[in-house]
Amino acid sequence: MTYTIRAGALERRTANEVLHAEPWGPHAVRVRAASGSVDPAAPGALESPPPPPPTEVLVADDGSARLVNGRLTVEASADGRLRFLDTASGRELLAEKSPYAHHEGPRVHAANGRTEQHFEGYDGERLHGLGQHLHGRLDQKGCVIDLVQRNTVAAIPFLHSSRGYGLLWNNPATGRVELGADTTRWTADGGGRIDYWVTAGDTPGQILDAYTQVTGRPPLLPEWASGFWQSKLRYRTQDELLSVARQYKERGLPLSVIVCDFFHWPAHGDWRFEGSEWPDPAGMVQELTALGVRLAVSVWPTVEPGSDSFDGLSAAGHLVRDADGGLLTAHWPSRSAEEPMRPMAYYDATHPGARTALWQRLNTNYRAHGVSCFWLDACEPDLGREAAERAVYAAGPAAAAAHLYPVLHTRAVAEGLASAGDDRPLSLVRSAWAGSQKYGAALCSGDIPPTFDSLSRQIRAGLNVAMSGICWWNTDIGGFSGGDPDDCAYRELLIRWFQYGTFSPVMRLHGEREPHHPAFSTDMTGGPNEVWSYGEEAYGILREHLLLRERLRPYLHELSEVAHRTGAPPMRPLFFDFPDDQRAWEADDQFLLGPDVLVAPVHEAGARSRRVHLPYGARWLDPFSGRVEEGGTTLDADAPLDRIPVFVREGAGVAALFR
């Protein structure tokens, strides 16, 4: 039961399991365990690592072992437990914790494929990442997080710790992570294996750099994507959509992208325009291009019987199966007058052939007309809990492989665009997993409510997304589900949300405004949702912020280049750039846009000022008043309705963009 060294890795075999720990990228180690043998082809998010620097691997006479890879040292005890240390100081960063007394028993105790891994919990530790969740917390210590994809939730199993480590639970199974006071426990519902990756870093930037080296760097943001995106539920016809784009031009308002949402198709799975409502897609795109506007088109993974693709996908085995037999289906609205709600199947994004078939239709029916931006909506896929648990994908049953779906769906479009010569893919997506960033995922926050509480939760959710490796993220400005443009209280919310969106990585106005049209009918469109829809006072404020966003675009492109090289998210918590400022770790409703712009959104109704912490280590300029404040201070900043508190690092050139 002693350790052996194989190709620079530590291996330990017992009657119950095999344990494998090896360098995986600079300053990082991958740990795998299974009851039989470690499957090198098991699915996950890790790419082949770059060649490691010289590492030290030793096995001692007492049965223990040691592996050193840059800043990370692994100490392996004789009973098979691992401790992860900072190499320079010897400080413990993380340690495995056995659920058994006296550390006895196997690491892998699979029942129906279910496995779990325990780690020590630490007082004072702050934990970030894990994707997008609506619990309203930045520090998630004490939370229990279900690792399940659903509308408004994107489960990304990467954890950043204030202790100086990052951990990826490299398992696409559904499951849970419990961030307890004395124990952190990860569970996987299927797969029958342990697979995790740990890195050490002196700063959050180093940790995300290491993480995106092994899961993929985000491509450069397309230049057109950094501007303002206009959307609503929904533009019903080509003429309606074009009239909105023309009005932006006539008013002198910048507009980069306009979105053609769902039900523009004849049937689910046709993946094409309905001819009577969208008679000339190529002409529409040509006019939009002349206006300086891109068209984004919604793509759902649902496939309706009788649609263009149903028979072919079904015959080829490219549809998701049901564990109870046959195809997995869920009822969705149809344009059929005889059957307005029909059972829909789902194309299987985990099947390479299905991805190829999807791209062929997108290429023929959209890209051939000039459309190169897609909104991959409902790509969790959107299923009820019971149906989601019964799903059987080409990659395996849902319990073992469900999280592969959204990332491989995004991959289908990214690889299709790449084959057409587009090296900067960007897809608006509603779900993501580890590694989605390398396929140009721009994660949106789903169908969130239009309230100040919801806005507050989005601020924290977006920062945790950033700490999960996803650089491009956005909310539905104003919230999705409701909001009356004629209501003064809602107008205030919309203004505050729009101000926040001005400094978000992607700025998109979207929502189902009142008055509502019949739900899920071909008339479903929602009320007006353009910047001129909210009265003259709001229009003036929104217009100024649109112009500010336009001036900020060169700065966003600089941040895109940094993200592409290092994985550093454009929007990030204060502690990302100021890890030595303890108050920066506590500030959960402010953020930095790059290293030079500090943003403090207003997320309370009626507020006309708010507390702002200015991190230690810089002096901060208020670009509106010209006043310079010392770092390391917390102050009451003015927040009149027409602006939110923003500060610029003294001497940064971006300050000129605010004038």
Write the layout of secondary structure elements.
Elements lengths: L2 E4 L2 E5 L4 E6 L4 E7 L21 E4 L5 E5 L2 E5 L5 E5 L5 E4 L19 E6 L6 E6 L11 E4 L6 E8 L3 E5 L5 E5 L3 E6 L4 E8 L3 H12 L12 E3 L7 H13 L6 E4 L20 H10 L3 E6 L2 E2 L6 H6 L5 E2 L7 E4 L7 E6 L5 H14 L7 E4 L8 H6 E3 L2 E2 H4 L2 H16 L7 E3 L11 E4 L7 H15 L5 E3 L13 H15 L4 E3 L26 H31 L4 E2 L1 H4 L4 H5 L4 E3 L3 E3 L9 E6 L4 E3 L6 E3 L2 E6 L7 E4 L10
Parallel strand pairs: 18-19, 18-31, 19-20, 20-25, 25-28, 28-29, 29-30
Antiparallel strand pairs: 1-2, 2-3, 3-4, 4-17, 5-6, 6-7, 7-8, 8-9, 10-16, 11-13, 12-15, 13-14, 14-17, 15-16, 21-24, 22-26, 23-24, 26-27, 32-33, 33-34, 34-39, 35-38, 36-37, 36-39
Helix pairs in contact: 5-8, 10-11
> Based on CA inertia axes, which overall geometry fits?
globular
Order of strands in the sheet with most strands = 1-2-3-4-17-14-13-11
Radius of gyration: 25 Å
Q: Helical residue percent?
A: 10-25%
Taken as a percent bin, the fraction of beta residues is 25-35%
CA(first)-CA(last) distance: 69 Å
Structural class: alpha+beta
Supply the number of helical segments.
13
- Can you give the mean pLDDT? 96
Question: How would you characterize the largest beta sheet?
Answer: 8 strands, antiparallel
**Stretches with pLDDT under 50, minimum 5 residues:** none
What would you say this structure looks like, in words?
This protein is α+β, with helices and mostly antiparallel strands and 659 residues long. Strand 1 (3-6) and strand 2 form a beta hairpin. The longest helix is centred in the C-terminal third of the chain and has 31 residues, at 536-566. The chain contains 13 helices and 39 strands. Helix 10 runs parallel beside helix 11. The chain is 23% helix and 26% strand. Strands 1-2-3-4-17-14-13-11 form an eight-stranded antiparallel β-sheet, covered by helices on one side. The chain is globular and about 80 Å long. The termini are far apart. The model has no long low-confidence stretch (mean pLDDT 96).
